[in-house]
RNA sequence: GCGCCUGUAGCUCAGCUGGAUAGAGCAACGGACUUCUAAUCCGUAGGUCGCGGGUUCGAAUCCCUCCAGGCGUACCA
């Protein structure tokens, strides 16, 4: 509806140009928004006011001209009013709304999808946690946000790939191997000093015990560092398998797990450094190689190869991003914890030095999660091993509640996650509010079936019977769903869907309580059944994008 | 010190890239189940949009000062 009105306005603007009311030069892009106040009609546009300052005329005068040039050939408008400082208020004919339901019937479980992405190849990298321990609650939010953004983009016609970058090289991995080795030796009865920077979680002991079980006691008497890679490999492999399982239980899947080690094997870093060198961005100082990131606005230059000859994490990461582009992705999205925000200028410098547009990479920052139980914070630290794992949360509160709770806020705002609250099956928990609406409709449909009522098709419905304000409101809301998905895709903001769902569920519950869907009046019953089926479709489609189930009964 | 994020009802947060009288949930208070699911609904109350300036027809939204909280400021990842 919105886009249809925008077209009308655009035509009117051009017609006014042709009539010489103003220069065709700076026509604004047409904004049409939902009117908040019913007295302002259904949609409102501010074009006249925007145009006023550009052409130097009074907004109301421009508005008059425009209204005169709006040719409502499809007869969708009841009237257009000029109000306030120069708003155009559009009143849509009431019987037009119900005609939009046809799209829902026709597209069914594809309603809300579009091809606006035009098959653009997008690579979305998320989670990417080091395989040094199980995923904890902090990773969970990024996992859901990434997963749902991917769903939304896929539904919007993008060719999207989900990728997890495994950071399986470098110091942290060596620490992991060392930690397991030390626990292993402890199991053999040795007294060992356990350094501060090693991982202390119980899972380390479990891994050591597994290894002991498998390999038997004879650990070579070499207590040097040479054993570490073996322990690292085993631990990282086992932990990664666990991570995949936990993500699977959370409903998060990836198209590919990309190993940092592959970058080294393919000598990607060498070629990267050559490329950067060609651009003149590399210089040597005291045995280290620096990348002149300040050329792109970073606050200081960054090391890419250490004195020891090892490349930094940063170097590998640029190589990884270069690799993404080389695989044909022209739009990259990275989902990071907000504590990495200082890293953004650096990575942007990296891709720009490789001649990629700054805007071809979007970083979504996901703020930290405060985990609470009954309002009291739970302290966590990966290294000390004190943390609540993703698995524990999913097991305790359930997949649906966990996912929905993580999607109820904008990603870049802090989120309190209360385990008790999320678990509670009560009105404090919005996920059930929405699912309940879906289940209720399913229940109504079951009842209808028992009474041998047939769900009518669009052409069989007398749409003029859907004229209650609640019905018009429901129709307006569900026919707006494609706009919501489009907006969420454009801004990469999944929380728009949860807010929309809460709205829609609220309208339905209200309608349900006030009116009977199945009544003695056959045609009215048919029309209402048709309407609630459409509502059910939209709730189901939206929940599916969120990766949350749509129960038929609760 | 510098940089980024945040500050909206008692609490948790929306506010659609400048629009009309700032919204929702929870908590509080008062009501509604012999009816298609009460995990629901209806009503009441609740605000100096952190403070102060500026930009313009118009600011919670954009710019600047200050205040408060969080994060970052590695040859860690």
Characterization of this structure:
The chain has 554 residues and is α/β, with parallel strands linked by helices. The strands form 4 sheets. A 5-stranded parallel beta sheet has the order 7-6-5-11-12, sandwiched between helices. A 4-stranded antiparallel beta sheet has the order 1-2-4-3. It contains 21 helices and 15 strands. Among the domains are: 91 residues, Gyrase A, domain 2; 136 residues, Isoleucyl-tRNA Synthetase, Domain 1 (Orthogonal Bundle); 78 residues, no CATH class. It binds one RNA strand of 77 nucleotides through helix 2, strand 10, helix 12, helix 17 and helix 19.
Explain briefly what this protein structure is.
By secondary structure, this protein is α/β, with parallel strands linked by helices. It is built from 21 helices and 15 strands. The mean pLDDT is 88.
Rg from Cα: 29 Å
Spatial separation of the terminal alpha carbons: 35 Å
* Number of separate helices: 21
Total beta-strand segments = 15
CATH class of one domain: Mainly Alpha
CATH superfamily of one domain: Isoleucyl-tRNA Synthetase, Domain 1
What is the helix fraction of residues, given as a range?
A: 40-55%
Structural class comes to: alpha/beta
Biggest sheet: strands, sense, closure?
5 strands, parallel
* Principal-axes shape call: flat
- What is the annotated CATH architecture of one domain? Orthogonal Bundle
Which blocks of ≥5 consecutive residues have pLDDT under 50?
Answer: none
């Amino acid at each position: 509806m919105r886009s249809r009105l925008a077209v009308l306005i655009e035509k009117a603007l051009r017609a006014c140009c042709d009539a010489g009311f103003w220069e065709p030069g700076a026509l604004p892009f047409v904004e049409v928004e939902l009117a908040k106040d019913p007295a302002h009609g259904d949609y409102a546009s501010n074009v006249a006011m925007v145009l006023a300052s550009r052409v130097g005329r009074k907004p109301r005068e421009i508005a008059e001209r425009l209204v005169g040039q709006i040719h409502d050939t499809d007869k969708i408008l009841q009237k257009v009013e000029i109000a306030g400082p120069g708003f155009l208020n559009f009143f849509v004919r009431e019987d037009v709304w119900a005609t939009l339901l046809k799209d829902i019937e026709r597209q069914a479980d594809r309603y809300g999808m579009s091809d606006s992405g035009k098959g653009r190849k997008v690579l979305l990298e998320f989670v990417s946690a080091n395989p040094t321990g199980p995923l904890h609650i902090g990773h969970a939010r990024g996992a859901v946000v990434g997963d749902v953004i991917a769903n939304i983009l896929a539904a919007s016609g993008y060719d999207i790939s989900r990728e997890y970058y495994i950071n399986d090289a470098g110091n942290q991995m060596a620490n992991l191997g060392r930690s397991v080795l030390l626990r292993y030796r402890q199991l053999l009865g040795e007294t060992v000093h356990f350094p501060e920077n090693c991982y202390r979680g119980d899972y380390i002991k479990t891994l050591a015990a597994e290894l002991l079980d498998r390999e038997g006691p004879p650990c070579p008497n070499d207590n040097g560092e040479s054993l570490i890679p073996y322990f690292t490999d085993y631990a990282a492999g086992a932990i990664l398998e666990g991570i995949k399982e936990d993500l699977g239980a959370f409903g998060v899947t990836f198209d590919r797990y990309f190993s940092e080690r592959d970058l080294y094997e393919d000598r990607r870093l060498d070629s990267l450094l050559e490329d950067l060198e060609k651009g003149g961005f590399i210089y040597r100082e005291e045995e280290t190689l620096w990348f002149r990131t300040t050329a792109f606005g970073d606050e200081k230059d960054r090391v890419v190869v250490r004195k020891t000859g090892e490349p930094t994490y940063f170097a590998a990461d640029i190589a990884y991003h270069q690799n993404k582009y080389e695989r044909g992705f022209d739009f990259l999205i990275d989902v990071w914890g907000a504590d990495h925000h200082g890293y953004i200028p650096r990575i942007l410098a990296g891709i720009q030095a490789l001649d990629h547009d700054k805007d071809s990479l979007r970083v979504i920052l996901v703020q930290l999660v405060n985990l609470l139980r009954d309002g009291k914070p739970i302290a966590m630290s990966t290294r000390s091993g004190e943390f609540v794992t993703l698995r524990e949360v999913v097991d305790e509160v359930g997949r649906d509640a966990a996912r929905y709770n993580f999607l109820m806020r904008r990603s870049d705002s802090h989120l309190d996650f209360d385990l008790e609250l999320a678990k509670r099956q009560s009105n404090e928990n919005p996920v059930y509010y929405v699912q309940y609406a879906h289940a209720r409709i399913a229940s109504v449909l079951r009842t209808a079936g028992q009474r041998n009522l047939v769900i009518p098709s669009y052409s069989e419905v007398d749409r003029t019977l859907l004229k209650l304000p609640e019905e018009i409101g429901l129709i307006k809301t569900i026919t707006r769903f494609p706009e919501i998905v489009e907006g969420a895709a454009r801004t990469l903001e999944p929380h728009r869907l949860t807010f929309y769902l809460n709205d829609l569920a609220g309208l339905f519950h209200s309608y349900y309580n006030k009116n009977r869907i199945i009544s003695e009046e056959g045609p009215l019953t048919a029309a209402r059944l048709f309407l609630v089926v459409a509502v059910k479709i939209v709730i189901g489609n939206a929940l599916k994008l969120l990766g949350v189930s749509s129960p038929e009964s609760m």
